């Protein structure tokens, strides 16, 4: 697995854990690739991706952005076709990186846990590019994964919720053992996934063992009756 690796990186817990595991494994992660879709997405984590720049600075790895204007106006009704269309800007970005002088693209890391919709498309992209895929979360037990993140020292904050049982009090809450216990109760009652794999909640990692400084957030909350998100008013790196 020698060569340059690119981590698909939103700043959320799953992509951050995949990156962390890649670094621990000894992969040469030379770039973080952050995709910023315009609106909802079948393929990508969308909330608070603008914070990924601060996280990348703290991690010390150069970042490559795919901005919303890279996405064409896909006029399709089929989710599969939409997912294929959303993948195109990321694949184009990887081809551009692979063509850079001195860059030997070996593979990408991805934080997929259970979504075959996403993973099959990313795996197909890797096959077309002739590169490897490192997906250390794939098929693992979600509770064990969460506990591994906590044990490693990840500080994770919930930035968006959209599920029965998750009210405004969850916005900005730390995703830790206490939160996990509450989520397991909600799984019994409402079927909430403990990692939010069904879109029940989204997260951002503000600190971890791979980061030199913590991301400090100031924010308000926006609640829309049965779902909500935080609205960041200020974000900066602070010494741990």
Lay out the secondary structure.
Blueprint: E1 4-8, H1 13-25, E2 29-35, H2 52-59, E3 63-66, H3 79-98, E4 105-109, H4 116-129, E5 132-134, H5 142-152, E6 155-161, H6 177-190, E7 201-207, E8 213-223, E9 228-239
Parallel strand pairs: 1-2, 1-4, 2-3, 4-5
Antiparallel strand pairs: 6-7, 6-9, 8-9
In short:
The protein has helices at about 15-25, 50-60, 80-100, 115-130, 140-150, 175-190; strands at about 5-10, 30-35, 65, 105-110, 130-135, 155-160, 200-205, 215-225, 230-240. It has about 240 residues and is an alpha/beta fold. Helix 3 (about 80-100) packs parallel to helix 4 (about 115-130).
Can you give a write-up of this model?
The protein has helices at 13-25, 52-59, 79-98, 116-129, 142-152, 177-190; strands spanning 4-8, 29-35, 63-66, 105-109, 132-134, 155-161, 201-207, 213-223, 228-239. With 240 residues, it is α/β, with parallel strands linked by helices. It folds into 2 domains: 4-134, Rossmann fold (3-Layer(aba) Sandwich), CATH 3.40.50.620; 148-239, putative n-type atp pyrophosphatase, domain 2. The strands form 2 sheets. Strands 3-2-1-4-5 form a 5-stranded parallel β-sheet, sandwiched between helices. Strands 7-6-9-8 form a 4-stranded antiparallel β-sheet. The longest helix is centred in the middle third of the chain and has 20 residues, at 79-98. The two termini are 33 Å apart. The relative contact order is 0.17. The model has no long low-confidence stretch (mean pLDDT 91).
């Amino acid at each position: 697995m020698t060569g340059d690796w690119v981590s698909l990186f939103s700043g959320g817990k799953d992509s951050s854990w995949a990156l962390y595991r890649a670094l621990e494994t000894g992969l040469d992660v030379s770039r973080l690739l952050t995709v910023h879709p315009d609106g909802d997405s079948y393929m990508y984590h969308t909330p608070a991706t603008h914070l990924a720049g601060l996280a990348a600075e703290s991690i010390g790895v150069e970042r490559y952005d795919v901005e919303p204007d890279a996405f064409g106006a896909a006029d399709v009704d089929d989710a599969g076709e939409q997912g294929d269309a959303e993948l195109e800007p990321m694949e184009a970005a990887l081809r551009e990186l692979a063509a850079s002088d001195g860059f030997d693209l070996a593979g990408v890391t991805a934080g997929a846990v259970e979504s075959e919709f996403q993973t099959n498309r990313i795996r197909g992209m890797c096959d077309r590019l002739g590169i490897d895929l490192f997906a250390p979360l794939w098929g693992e037990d979600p509770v064990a994964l969460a506990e591994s993140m906590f044990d490693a020292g990840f500080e994770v904050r919930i930035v968006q919720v959209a599920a029965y049982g998750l009210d405004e009090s969850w916005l900005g809450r730390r995703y830790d053992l206490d939160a996990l216990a509450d989520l397991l109760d909600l799984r019994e009652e409402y079927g909430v996934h403990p990692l939010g794999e069904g879109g029940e909640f989204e997260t951002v990692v503000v600190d971890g063992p791979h980061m030199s400084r913590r991301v400090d957030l100031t924010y308000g909350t926006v609640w829309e009756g049965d779902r909500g998100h935080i609205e960041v008013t200020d974000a900066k790196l602070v010494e741990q």
